[in-house]
């Protein structure tokens, strides 16, 4: 303790001189830092000098225990360095169970270099793992298999849904051409939705895949209402159709976009992406029904300008 107090006193004096020199040289921030360090050194020196005898004895006992612990650690390290390399007979059972197979072979663990939740990384990792071992298993391989089944089922269900919608339109309108015109805003809207997603950096995932069937169910209404009203008005003209039916389509679509779009404000990434996809899908179907379809009907001679 006496040596420590003396060293702290010398440190306090050196810091005081350095602070004075820094202040004289115009180095204000450095002088402030040196002054704070000098004050701490002075406080520590006083604490050491004023420490009661029992605290000094506890410090000395702790120092002795620390030296003893260091000696034991050094002895353990030297003994470990002289030990023979581990063998299968000397390894713990839990290590053997993890890295050996029942037939006596070894288990190989493959670690992906990227994020397996990225489709390209997952496909490359699973392909590499199966080249090494056709019977390889683990979370990435199981996840890849499940993801493939989900996406394949999704494509089949969307195709079946579009086919059923097409059949219902034919039964309702009794005209394949009118059914195609009613379906056109939905198909173009889905293409536009995919384009906006690509521009916005939004990709499909397990959370927002359900948005496509919802967009199909909501977006088909717009084209059906326009075609029905045009057939009802006859030669009344597209202006009359848009003034009445178009206004109803606009209000209904905007309220639906507000309801679905509120999900885009969610903190959960899956719900947020679902809201964004629904907002883009319903908005695209609204735009195609109010802009593309009316101009196409006029261009085809089905309605007056």
General description of the model:
The chain has 305 residues and is mainly alpha-helical. The chain contains 10 helices and no strands. The longest helix has 35 residues, at 139-173. The radius of gyration is 38 Å and the shape is elongated.
Proportion in β-strands: under 5%
Written as H for each helix and E for each strand, in order along the chain, the element string is HHHHHHHHHH
Low-confidence stretches: none
Helix content: over 70%
Number of separate helices: 10
Number of strands: 0
The major pleated sheet works out as:
none
Span of the ends, CA to CA: 101 Å
Summing up helix and strand content along with how strands pair, one would put the structural category as mainly alpha
Radius of gyration (Å): 38 Å
Shape field: elongated
Mean pLDDT: 87
Task: Write a compact overview of the structure shown.
By secondary structure, the chain is mainly alpha-helical.
Write the layout of secondary structure elements.
Elements (H helix, E strand, L loop, with lengths): L1 H23 L3 H22 L3 H30 L10 H7 L19 H14 L6 H35 L2 H25 L10 H23 L4 H24 L7 H31 L6
Helix pairs in contact: 1-2, 6-7, 6-8, 7-8, 7-10, 8-9, 8-10, 9-10
Can you tag this structure with a few keywords?
305 residues, mainly alpha
């Amino acid at each position: 303790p006496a040596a420590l107090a003396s060293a702290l006193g010398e440190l306090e004096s050196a810091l005081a001189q350095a602070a004075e020199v820094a202040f004289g040289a115009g180095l204000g921030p450095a002088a402030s830092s040196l002054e704070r360090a000098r004050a701490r050194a002075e406080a520590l020196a006083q604490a050491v000098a004023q420490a009661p005898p029992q605290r000094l004895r506890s410090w000395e006992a702790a120092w002795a225990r620390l030296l003893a612990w260091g000696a034991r650690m050094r002895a353990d390290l030297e003994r470990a360095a002289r030990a023979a390399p581990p063998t299968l007979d000397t390894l713990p059972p839990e290590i053997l169970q993890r890295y050996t197979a029942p037939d006596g072979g070894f288990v190989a663990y493959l670690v992906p270099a990227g994020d397996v939740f990225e489709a390209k990384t997952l496909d490359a990792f699973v392909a590499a793992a199966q080249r090494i071992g056709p019977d390889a298993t683990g979370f990435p391989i199981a996840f890849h298999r499940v993801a493939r089944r989900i996406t394949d089922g999704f494509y089949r269900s969307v195709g079946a849904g579009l086919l059923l919608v097409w059949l219902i339109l034919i039964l309702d309108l009794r005209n394949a051409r009118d059914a195609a015109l009613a379906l056109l805003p939905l198909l173009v809207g889905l293409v536009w939705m995919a384009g906006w997603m690509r521009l916005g950096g939004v990709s499909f995932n397990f959370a927002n895949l359900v948005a496509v069937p919802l967009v199909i169910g909501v977006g088909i209404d717009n084209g059906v209402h326009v075609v029905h009203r045009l057939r009802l008005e006859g030669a009344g003209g597209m202006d009359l159709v848009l003034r009445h039916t178009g206004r109803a389509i606009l209000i209904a679509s905007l309220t639906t976009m507000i309801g679905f779009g509120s999900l885009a404000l969610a903190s959960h990434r899956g719900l947020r992406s679902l809201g964004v996809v629904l907002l883009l899908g319903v908005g695209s179907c609204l735009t195609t029904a109010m802009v593309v379809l009316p101009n196409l009907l006029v261009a085809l001679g089905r309605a007056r300008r």
